[in-house]
Amino acid sequence: MSILIVGTLALDTIETPTDKAEQVLGGSATYSAFAAHSFATPIAIVAVVGRDFPEQYHQILKSIKLDLSGVEISKEHDTFAWGCQYRDNLNIRDTTFTHLNALQHFSPVVPEAFNNCQVICLGNLHPQIQSDTLSQVGDASFVACDTMNYWIQETPAELIQVLKTVDCLVINDEEALQMTDEFNLFSAARKILYLGPKSLIIKKGEHGAMLFVEDQVFIIPSFPISKVKDPTGAGDAFLGAMAGSLNYERHIGLDALKRAVVYGSTVASFCVEHIGPYELLNLTQSDITKRAKQFNGVTEWPVLSVLSPLA
Amino acid sequence: MSILIVGTLALDTIETPTDKAEQVLGGSATYSAFAAHSFATPIAIVAVVGRDFPEQYHQILKSIKLDLSGVEISKEHDTFAWGCQYRDNLNIRDTTFTHLNALQHFSPVVPEAFNNCQVICLGNLHPQIQSDTLSQVGDASFVACDTMNYWIQETPAELIQVLKTVDCLVINDEEALQMTDEFNLFSAARKILYLGPKSLIIKKGEHGAMLFVEDQVFIIPSFPISKVKDPTGAGDAFLGAMAGSLNYERHIGLDALKRAVVYGSTVASFCVEHIGPYELLNLTQSDITKRAKQFNGVTEWPVLSVLSPLA
């Protein structure tokens, strides 16, 4: 049992209405790996960093025993760098800069020990890199895949090729609507499943997440958080925790996927409470279990048939 | 057991990307009463209509056996008229006109038979009209109250007086944020409960609804509807179905309120499938029960403890 995470390692600059943090360790692989980390399993990252990637960040990644043999260190380029600024309500994010740097020259190499891992997370990257990764691994894995507006618009053919081969596409609501030219998420979901992925998760930020498997739908709200500090990486943390949870399932059917959505949402709720990804490293299994139980309490229905004349 | 609904009877003009309907029977009292109607109980409307209110609409209201003795018919003014236009995604609505007409001269008179009703719905009206209604009824009732941006901004003192006396405020997410100057709905909810209402329901349209009672939170998504035709009146239908459900509860505690949110959401989901309010009159208890069960299936969690190492 193990998890392979292909994604970005980045240096982030994050501005919120109350905080500013520069050169924070970021990127989809960071958030996903940190989130999966609490689930205690071997995890490998496949990514690239540049010559400027701080030694301190190498040390952090090593300290949590990630397999980093698939992390390329470019001697010619800097690390992928990205900046963003959140508006007052933290729901609208403006990208302030994107320097691809080493990411432009990245060819994924999967460590041999992870050729037969249980779960693969294809973070948001060029669909060709996602395909190249899949071509190096065995068939048995459960493959969860993210993408973004840019790839939907610029590389639709390559993206559709990837979608045909993955078990679960995990995207946000805007991406789902853009991908299908729809206004309604349920219509969009049906179109996306038709494109090939065996299941679909649509993340809606503060409004929760929806799972689609064949004609089944599972919808959960977000865990109530009154002090959101920084939504950065919450979607990647969702993906990582999902992988952490699926890694232990004997059979990945509807209930296993529902549990993955629950744990994904739960860990994402911890992620947004702090700026940057570090707080995820402090999470214990007991923290996660405790919050998942509270979360269940928030969503659990009363018996409908006792008092109502409708029953 | 009976329900009193104070609100508007209106002539609506509704434009959606695919339809246009003029002079439709509308208003908060119409949608709330039609929604409550399926729950088979005596219902009175307190409202005003004008000299132009079509005889055909009088007949519709009479045909479903509403007590209309509290509906004033103005001989000097026309009926409240309101027009709106929805944008492509049906989530953004522009008001095209508002003619208050007879509504400007409205003093509510509660029919004597409803002085001791079980549930009162104070539809979105001037807070003074809401207070005047409450001063005419007994204490035993459960009072649910709606409001809107306009009253929050223009008559805050009168609104706060009403809030101190009601059992449940039922508003949408924008209104909750505006009322409290917050960006976060959970922080907003805490502030609103502090103002006086014993409980609070925040409706989030396609994203569901949240119930707050003391320190308890209950959140449900919206029932999946892929063909939304017209969101007009969905919030009022929610309120009416809520009242219909609460009318049968022996004790209105947390579980009863949760059931009210479930039935409110379920009936609202039927409302948005058709333009105007008429389809609500075709709803049977069996339609509602059936959809509520499907809805439960969409939100029900799997057991978390069986397969996960976190338990």
Describe this protein's structure.
The structure is a homodimer of 311-residue chains. The first copy, chain A, has helices at 28-37, 55-63, 127-134, 149-154, 156-163, 173-180, 185-195, 234-246, 254-271, 285-299; strands at 3-6, 10-15, 20-26, 43-49, 67-73, 81-86, 93-99, 119-122, 142-145, 168-172, 199-203, 209-213, 216-220. With 311 residues, chain A is an alpha/beta fold. In chain A, the strands form two sheets. In chain A, strands 5-4-1-8-9-10-11-12-13 form a nine-stranded mixed sheet, with helices on both faces. A four-stranded mixed sheet of chain A has the order 3-2-6-7. In chain A, a hairpin with a 6-residue loop joins strand 6 and strand 7. In chain A, helix 1 (28-37) crosses helix 8 (234-246) and helix 3 (127-134) packs parallel to helix 5 (156-163). The longest helix of chain A is centred in the last third of the chain and has 18 residues, at 254-271. Chain A is globular and about 65 Å long. The mean pLDDT of chain A is 94. Chains A and B meet through helix 7, strand 13, helix 9 and helix 10 of A and helix 7, strand 13, helix 9 and helix 11 of B.
